[in-house]
Design a protein that fits this description.
Keywords: Membrane, Transmembrane, Transmembrane helix. It comes from Streptomyces stephensoniae. This is ATP/GTP-binding protein. InterPro entries: P-loop_NTPase (IPR027417). By secondary structure, this protein is an alpha/beta fold. The chain has 27 helices and 16 strands. The strands form 3 sheets. Strands 1, 2, 3, 4, 5, 6, 9, 10, 11, 12, 15 and 16 form a 12-stranded mixed β-sheet that branches. A two-stranded parallel sheet has the order 7-8. Strands 13-14 form a two-stranded antiparallel sheet. The longest helix has 26 residues. The two termini are about 20 Å apart. The relative contact order is 0.09.
């Protein structure tokens, strides 16, 4: 865990209960049940005041003898010689006086209880005293305790006298001849009066907090989960398999802080893989005994990212991107809960739309790239991040391969053919990248033209042509075609000669896609890219195909400023290569993630179909757009249907909001229509009651006519998405590869 996070052993023991899609599971605690609408502050205060005044009036009438038959219940259970004759007769003997004192105390207790319940004093105390916190809570209860003690000792509240009577009745009247006993009784009375106020004011907690602050040590906190023999930090899976020595070694590494969360995730993944291949168990256990937490390292040797900008839980693969807002659009149970992304969500792909400055790159793309990078270090994922030069995708040392297109200092070039050796496959992917956005041109015909040239060239030279050579072949330059024909004849490649002859017959015909392909290839045949897309034995290209085989972290920087059209072409090419390569994988245990920081003009009909297939091969793509109009209009609906997760950032237009509203659908809601009619009273007494009710509630007396209906309503309307989403927020809809989904949630990014 990062700086300021709990110790690794406590982090491992923290519960992560299964939750609905997108809920931050680390240390999750559910919200308390929803409560109905409470009374207003005015009604609460007036009701408490009326209850208090009524109790004071009733007690005054009792003490002054204005209530008839007030002593009848007491006389029924006491001897008659204690009382004067008549229903109003008072006590005759000292025993009657003492019985009356106890009787009054009981009645006073019932009166206080009834007044507290009727006046709702508990809610008043919680809302206006407890909510203010310490030290106001302690001071308020201390003042109330002092006032209560004063009223007790001066006899206004019948507490001390009944206690003294009861003690004398039990221990005898001579008990008060001892001053020590009397002082003890008085101290017990004072403690009994103060105890409820101490509990309400939480005096003990305040004193403990003050002492901890004074000594410079924090108050003791509860351990999130106590350590047991089966705790996660004791590696119970290794102990159950009999590798006790390896488990003890890792437990010591955790206790002493020589491991981090990535080491834990990496070793757990390595152990899970080894259990499927028993011949790997012994070497893994020996490596653990020899190197501890550094066993089964990532090929780069890195054990963590150089810097994290978001909260990660590597055990579950989650990255927290925000907090669900306290908004009526969000279900009550999801409000204020953390929102997180993980591979089960990214496996359905994610589309984020928002204007520049809305937080797509900093608050969504960067955390996702970090999360996939951490999983790559744990041996569970491979990530390809594509963006413009200077995009906030992470520092260079957070990646294994950094390709800077057009930068002579780049250590790697980019393979336009994706590392494949099949001319037809290379032609199909290259055609999609070159002319996939040209709606009037069939990409299959373009792929055929490229295959008629790539196949013969590879057969003659053993590799695919470089950019200048491919441009000459597409232009039909006689010298290039003649040289290729001569090389094929010399090696006896008659099948490839037929391909070349077919290309010669089709060249220059109506609808020939070669000129358009040549124009697009010319975008890459610039001095800035000279030698960058080289092929042959001396080339040093990075082949995207390796992403499907190794847990690599790759970043591609595109020259967007000086070569915007070439950058869009390369983005389309990388997206097409990624969907084709991941779909052709035979081993899908490694999650493959593609992150496009700007997918403008990169989405084509074929790549939309490829994105739809990613979820079945343990892969996913994250695409960001400034507006949905950056995608051809015919692909708006297919694209929104192909991705399982969508995010609408603040500042989108109503046109974009309409598309999201249609994609998210509607829901049945219960609407209540209330028609209020003022009640006019004719009788003076009724008018007085109405005036009193208006004084208490602050509203005129009305009758309500309520109509309840079930209607179908959009989850988020286009206008709400355009104007009701605050800055720094986004409305995010999530779905998992298993088919679970969450409704669109308003999320405070970074919260």
């Amino acid at each position: 865990p990062s700086a300021g996070a709990p110790a690794l052993d406590a982090w491992l023991r923290t519960p992560r209960p299964p939750q609905a899609p997108g809920i931050w599971r680390y240390g999750f605690t559910p919200r308390p049940p929803e409560q109905g609408d409470g009374v207003s502050d005015r009604s609460l205060l007036v009701g408490a005041l009326i209850a208090l005044l009524s109790a004071l009036l009733l007690w005054s009438l009792w003490r002054n003898g204005y209530l008839p038959y007030r002593l009848v219940p007491l006389k029924l259970f006491t001897p008659g010689e204690w009382w004067n004759p008549g229903t109003r007769g008072g006590p005759r003997t000292i025993e009657g006086v003492r019985a009356l004192a106890v009787y009054e105390a009981l009645l006073f207790g019932l009166l206080v209880y009834g007044c507290g319940r009727l006046g709702n004093f508990s809610e008043l105390f919680r809302r206006h005293v407890v909510s203010r916190g310490q030290p106001f809570l302690a001071v308020a209860t201390a003042v109330a305790a002092g006032l209560t003690l004063l009223l007790v000792w001066n006899g206004t509240l019948p507490v001390a006298a009944p206690v003294l009577v009861l003690v004398a009745a039990v221990g005898g009247g001579e008990i008060y001849q001892s001053q020590a006993v009397a002082n003890t009784v008085y101290a017990v009375i004072a403690a009994a009066v103060l105890y409820p106020f101490a509990r309400l004011g939480r005096w003990r907690e305040l004193i403990a907090a003050r002492r901890g602050r004074g000594t410079g040590t924090p108050a003791p906190a509860d351990d999130p989960a106590p350590a047991t023999a089966t705790s996660a930090d004791r590696w119970p899976e290794l102990r159950a398999a009999g590798w006790t020595d390896a488990a003890e070694t890792l437990t010591a590494e955790v206790r002493t802080g020589r491991m981090n969360d990535v080491d834990v995730a990496r070793l757990r993944h390595a152990w899970a893989q080894a259990t499927r291949s028993p011949d790997l168990l012994a070497p893994l256990a020996e490596a653990v005994l020899r190197t501890g937490g550094a066993a089964a390292p990532h090929p780069s040797g890195d054990r963590d990212l150089p810097r994290r900008t978001a909260r990660h839980d590597v055990l579950t693969g989650q990255v927290r991107i925000g907090r669900c807002a306290e908004d009526p659009h969000n279900p009550y149970a999801r409000r204020t809960t953390g929102l997180a992304l993980d591979p089960t969500l990214l496996g359905t792909s994610l589309l984020a739309v928002g204007p520049p400055g809305s937080g797509k790159s900093d608050r969504l793309v960067r955390p996702v790239v970090e999360a996939l990078g951490l999983r790559a270090l744990a041996g569970q994922a491979a990530v390809l991040a594509v963006g413009g030069a200077g995009a906030p995708l992470g520092p260079d040392d957070a990646f294994d391969v950094v390709v800077r297109v057009g930068n002579p200092a780049s250590a790697h070039d980019l393979d336009l053919y994706g590392g494949t050796t099949d001319p037809d496959e290379a032609a199909a992917v290259l055609a999609e990248g070159l002319v996939g956005d040209v709606g009037s041109l069939d990409s299959r015909r373009a792929a055929t033209v490229l295959a008629q040239l790539l196949g013969p060239y590879r057969a003659a030279h053993g590799h695919f042509p470089s950019v200048p050579e491919l441009r000459e072949l597409l232009d039909g330059t006689p010298a290039a075609l003649t040289a290729l024909r001569t090389a094929l004849e010399a090696t006896g490649q008659h099948a490839m000669l037929r391909e070349l002859d077919a290309r010669a017959r089709q060249a220059g015909g109506a609808g020939d896609p070669a000129p358009v392909l040549a124009d697009r290839v010319a975008l890459l045949d610039r001095p800035a890219f000279a030698g960058f897309f080289a092929t042959g034995p001396d080339a040093r290209p990075f082949a995207l195909r390796s992403l499907g085989q190794y847990p690599l972290r790759v970043r591609v920087d595109l020259p967007e400023r000086g070569h915007a059209e070439a950058s869009r072409l390369l983005t389309r090419l990388l997206l097409a290569q990624f969907t084709a390569i991941t779909a052709a994988r035979t081993d899908t245990t490694l999650f493959a993630g593609l992150v496009l920081d700007d997918a403008t003009h990169a989405v084509t009909a074929e790549t939309v179909r490829g994105i739809r297939r990613l979820r079945s091969v343990n892969a996913g793509a994250v695409l960001t757009l400034r507006t949905v109009d950056d995608v051809p209009e015919a692909l708006h609906t297919p694209l929104l249907g192909a991705v399982g997760c969508t995010a609408a950032f603040s500042g989108i237009t109503t046109w974009d909001g309409k598309r999201f509203a249609e994609a998210w659908g509607k829901e049945w809601v219960e609407t209540r229509e209330v028609a209020q009619h003022t009640v006019f009273a004719d009788q003076p007494f009724t008018r007085a009651l109405h005036a009193l009710r208006k004084l208490v509630t602050g509203k005129a007396v009305t009758t309500d006519a309520v109509t309840v209906r079930q209607v179908e309503k959009e989850r988020w309307s286009a206008s709400e998405l355009a104007y009701a989403v605050p800055a720094g927020h986004a409305v995010i809809r999530l779905a998992t590869v298993r088919g679970e989904h969450a409704p669109p949630l308003l999320v405070e990014l970074g919260g």
